[in-house]
Amino acid sequence: MKYLIIGAGPAGLTVGNRLLDKGIEDFRIIEAADTAGGLCRSEDVDGAPLDISGGHFVDVRRPKVNEFLFRFLGEDEMNSFERVTKIRTKDARIGYPYEANIWQLPIDEQVEHLKAIANAGCNTGAEEPENFLDWIPWKLGEKIANEYLFPYNEKIFSVDLSTLGTYWMNKLPNVSFEDTLRACLTRKPYGSLPGHARFYYPKKYGSGELWLRMAERLKDHIDYSTPAKELDLKQRKVNGTYTADVVINTAPWTSYEKISGASDGFLEAVSALKYSSIAVKYLPDVEDEEVNWEYFPDKSIDYHRILYRNTFAPGSKGSWAEINLKRYEKKAEDTVFITEYAYPLNTIDKPEKIGLILKEAKSGNVLGLGRWGEWEHYNSDVVVELALGLAEKLD
Prior knowledge:
By secondary structure, the chain is an alpha/beta fold. The protein folds into 2 domains: 195 residues, FAD/NAD(P)-binding domain (3-Layer(bba) Sandwich), CATH 3.50.50; 102 residues, no CATH class. It is built from 11 helices and 21 strands. Strand 12 and strand 13 form a beta hairpin. The protein is globular.
């Protein structure tokens, strides 16, 4: 075939649909699961949708992406929300991001936080660190580091934070000392807004419905329950069965049992890639009237985030908690979903390793795409944007 797409998640489904738009039908998608959606799949739990790999929302910031997605699940089938998120510390519940909302703390606490931020390395001229552990106090001071960002990130990643780099800090809100001071004086947040400041969620379904509809159009091109186990880079062959002029890989590189036709450096780079896994647990009796989701840095609690689905999924009750799999202890009564590949870890050497992988693979017409193909913590809207861009180059 001309194109073989590995994975029927947002990246693979977007490329497949754009190929059809261009009149190209000589392609195949293979998917390990028995349904489409990848990390954005949903299940019906207790009469309402639950996103089984964590919350996935349609951001409003990319009009071309939304225009494409609304072809499958119309804007009139979506509700729009202004994001409301909080951080629950041992002594307070404040808005997200923390550094923009310390004005919600008692005056004495605000003063201590401001003193610590003023003395942070980024404000005193200290050189920016190369690892995440040192970067946190350098950027935000010891107070926020110790009370929020150290424990929270240790929970979500469950690795030594000094092994993570700092090149991905563009994903985090950017709030300067001046922004924090201004927020305390005016009692409202300043600084850049986080992703999904406004978002869409289906009125009647979970987030997975969108991808199921995209897959329906591609039903004659998808082979389900077909995990990609073996990849031959030189022959562009998968599982010894599928051969294509171009292979588009959206699956985790580390999920292959065998990769042949690759250099030793390529294989070493793949083995160096790291990721984290999560458990998503249904909490039938936990709800909130206002907050969409909440972050929990307290290390005595196993979960790091709760999504209150009653605030964005009409007619639902309860919520779901996200827990790093290393921290989760299963109980017989739990309704829980396990996702092995949840988040790529931004280790210090990752840019070098994934750069080598993508360069060598591309030289043989094997293209990495999306969260796992590029080993980047992309949200689904970013993945769709990248997939649309790639599809435009295909003929």
